[in-house]
Amino acid sequence: MAVGMLIFLASCQKLAPFGSNSLLFSDANIQYIEFFRWWRRVLLTGDTISYSFNKSLGGPMIAFWSYYLSSPLNLLVIFFKEHHLAVFFDYLVALKIVLATFSMAYYLNWRFKDLSLDWLSAAALAYAFSQYIFMQIYNVMWLDGVYLLPLLVMGVQLLLKDGKSHVLFLFCILSILFNWYTAYMNFLFLALFYLSELISHGNQLDLKQVSRKFLNFCRVIILALLSSMVLFLPVILALYQGKGQAEKNIFQWGTNNTLFEFCRGFILGIIRTEPNSALFCGIVIILGCFSYFLNQQINLKQRISNGELLLFLFASIYLKPLEHVWNGFREAQGHPIRFGYIVIFLMIYYAVLNIECKAKISKWVVLLYIVMLFGLNFHQALGIKKMGLSIAICLLILFGQRLKLQRRFNTLILLCLIAELVLNGNLILKHHLANNLPQFYDITLRKQYDVNQEQLVEDVQKYDQSAFYRVDQTWNRGMGTYGKITRGNEGLAFGYPSISAYSSTMDKNVNELIFSAGYSPLNTTIVGMNESMIAMESLLGVKYLFSEKNYPCYERVKEIELRNQKNVYQNPYALPLGLVVDPLSDEGIVENNPFEFQNQLFSQLLKRKVKLYTPVRYNDSYVNHQYRLTTIRQSKRSLLYGWGDFTFANAVLTIDGIYRINYPEWYYNRVFLIGNGEDKHSVLFDQVNILSEKDHLHLYSLDLDHFDGIINNLKTKGINPTEFQDGKVQFHLNAGHGKVLFTTIPYDKGWQVTINGKRVIPKKAIGSFIQIPLLEGDNQIELNYRIVGFVPGIILSFIGMSGYGYFYVWKMSIKNCVALNKN
Asked: What average pLDDT does the structure give for the chain?
């Protein structure tokens, strides 16, 4: 049935193979499809999983891989060509939905021996085709947690019922290895569920016995966690340098929208937008869940305990501080309420408990649901068709369950539920397609872009076969409609070192550097380049630029033809990977102003005060929500840049009458190029609601003659690597006394450095980079990257496995021997 439903939905929305559409919506097209391209290259061409210079300036990949790609199902990517990865993505999603159906059905069949096939099928499909699944259908890595959850719950109940822990132990390990993020949410739920089941069913247990049993559960989880440390310890250590640290102020009071919006999450056909709940899983399941708590056949203590658990999960959806705990003690930047599938699982579980007792759906629950429909419709129209269909289903359930032929009623309910789930899924898929560009989800258009991009990269690599240079771009797929959108993972996908990257596992030092320099608007997930800043790009070794226009100081490479609306431009100022300089401070530069940050950065490298950028005056006015300014012509050859330190957002920015972008916006650079300083320019921010005293626009001028001198000076100190590949770099140079080799490789504890065969300790430079103390004279330098925590992780995994063997195998065998002797 699940396969049939998927085929029907695919045919309705013209998904492959029924059309050229795909499921590459939102982050799937911005991030994940490029990640799968990299993963395929790792599997087939020998790229390393430990480190990549194609992820921003360079960084460890183990945390990245374990968050996005560690599921063994992703190995299937090797059976698809690079240009067919969109089709692979759709099949991968479909496979995980089928697995979620199967695992839920397997669990329900194990847990409820007398459950009819109709109800078992209905409950399993309700879980795998719920509203959460379709709203998060593009976040494919979270679906591993969805299909593993029923098996984890089975392990918990086996531990409670028979004291057997092997199922829970095994699936806890698999959960961590498949996707540690959903494993965290699942484990948090398992602890709450275990306590709820223990309290509600343990009539003869005192507090001491409850505590002992719960500690036994915790021991299994901890041993499973230890057993997975061969992978998870390196992940923890890598995340600690990025987003793994808990955020401040996560417990400040706040709610996710209103209670009205929370209730709308239970309604058929309602498209949920962030940060709203998405809990619809079939009307009969919702009614059955709440009827459970009115079922007099079930022990009151059990209903109260289970009701408390469900209310806590509802509160976690509505109250932000609780939601942040589920997100890993941090605020989710996009896609909140990520644990919604857990709430749906619990609702289905309680609904089936009610069915197990042969109880009917409560007429009071049906009446309350209908009243809620009218109340929500009064608050905000639901639509006549959705209202009518929902009420009709409620009445069908209410009166149909009175039929004497219960089997026919069960079959009718199953068919009705399938129709609901397919209709709801179809509406959500239609919404996704309508809110994304064809350039993102259309398989044919993606293939055309990818082929051209591959050729563009190949042309550059043939044109310049130097060991090291970085490449970036200011134009990519979909830019024509959305303007400047950060899709920064094409370096990782197509195999070239870049500045840009976009993921949830970014290195903190790199993010803060790029943010401070004026590129990224966020210092957590995005390292992006939407516009050129020639000084910073030169320092970072960006030698080539894929761009729709010629930025100042770049020279077009005429030997390479236009592809994907992009020409290739060369930066004559690009510096090598290494510079031989005097020792640098390991402390980072604390400066919010990106121009002053760059001034201080170059000053530290040159050991003298450098003023690359100087502030310039301008004339401005604010009338009718329009903030307008005109620049004053500069006497020197220069470039003008702007940076808005604004409290407002999303104003329409035009420069010299040409629309540039909505500014400030989450995906756009903080610094924007205005033009040549010798010319007069008009800058307009339109649709500014309020311009307060806290809003400041900073205009700075880059003196190009001064810049020429600085770059020429640094080039005399430059050293190119003799070998440059992921995780391994070599230099050969002669140095004077007391010098260091400064590199634009991000600092990471995994780098091991030798000079002339002897181990030396690299140091952090300016908070972000690597500096290596040099010997006077000849220096043969080699840098090799090793995954931090891998060996200790192996040891901890051995301890975890040994501990489990001691507590739950050896002790159990002794217990059985004692029992046999007594007999």
From this structure: 90
> Which pLDDT does position 720 carry in this prediction?
95
Rounded CA separation 527/499 (Å): 7
pLDDT exceeds 90 at position 383: no
The C-alpha atoms of residue 126 and residue 116 are separated, in whole angstroms, by: 15
Q: What is the pTM of this model?
A: 0.91
The CB density around residue 329, as the number of other CB atoms within 10 Å, is: 13
Of 194, 100, 218, 217, residue with least CA distance to 151: 100
Q: What confidence score (pLDDT) does residue 164 get?
A: 87
Cα separation of the two ends of the chain: 50
Tell me how crowded residue 347 is: count the other CB atoms within 10 A of its CB. Answer: 26
Q: At what angle do helices 300-318 and 180-201 cross, to 10 degrees?
A: 150
Q: Which helix (H) or strand (E) is 491 found in, with range?
A: helix 490-494
> Tokens 């007099």 map to which residue?
296
Cis peptide before 576 (omega within 30 of 0): no
d(CA 726, CA 785) in angstroms, rounded, equals 8
Q: How many whole angstroms separate alpha carbon 270 and alpha carbon 283?
A: 13
CB atoms within 10 A of CB 567: 20
List the beta strands (DSSP E) in 582-710.
613-615, 618-623, 626-631, 638-645, 651-655, 658-663, 671-676, 682-686, 696-703
Phi then psi for 502, rounded to 5 degrees?
A: -150, 105
Cα(238)–Cα(180) distance, integer angstroms: 13
Number of Cβ within a 10 Å radius of residue 467: 14
Peptide bond before 497: cis, by omega within 30 degrees of 0?
A: no
What's the pLDDT tens digit per position in 562-572? Answer: 999 999 999 99
SS (H, E, C) 696-707: EEEEEEEEHHHH
Per-residue pLDDT averaged across 364-380, rounded? 89
Residue 765: in which H helix or E strand, if any? strand 763-765
Phi first, then psi, for residue 523 (nearest 5°) are -110, 30
Ramachandran quadrant class, 263 (left: phi over 0; alpha: psi -120 to 50; beta: rest): alpha
Which range has highest mean pLDDT (71-80, 211-220, 271-280, 433-442)?
71-80
One-letter amino acid for residue 150 of the chain: P
Residue pLDDT, tens place only, 321-330:
999 899 888 8
- Quickly count: other Cβ atoms within 10 Å of residue 48's Cβ: 14
Long-range contacts of 518-523 (CB under 8 A, 24+ apart): 518/594, 518/595, 518/597, 518/598, 518/641, 518/643, 518/669, 518/670, 518/671, 519/669, 519/670, 519/671, 520/486, 520/669, 520/670, 521/664, 521/665, 521/666, 521/667, 521/668, 521/669, 521/670, 522/333, 522/666
Spatial neighbors of 100 by CB under 8 A, at least 6 apart, are: 127, 128, 133, 143, 146, 147
Determine the pLDDT at residue 125.
97
| pLDDT number for residue 524 | 57
Torsion angle in degrees (nearest 10) through CA of 370, 372, 373, 379: 150
The one-character DSSP state at 32 is I
233 touches 793 (CB < 8 A): yes
Distance between CA atoms of 75 and 241, rounded to whole angstroms? 28
Position 510 scores a pLDDT of: 87
- Asked if 250 and 321 touch (Cβ cutoff 8 Å), the reply is yes
- What are phi and psi for residue 473, nearest 5 degrees? -150, 155
- Cα diameter, the chain: 103
Angstrom distance (rounded) from CA 218 to CA 221? 5
Q: Give the separation between CA 475 and CA 490, rounded to whole angstroms.
A: 11
CA atoms within 13 A on the CB side of 274: 10
Instruction: Give the 3-state secondary structure of residue 640.
Output: strand
* 755 to 58, 722, 731: CA distances (angstroms): 22, 14, 9
Residue 538, judged by CB atoms within 10 A of its CB (0-12, 13-18, 19+), counts as buried
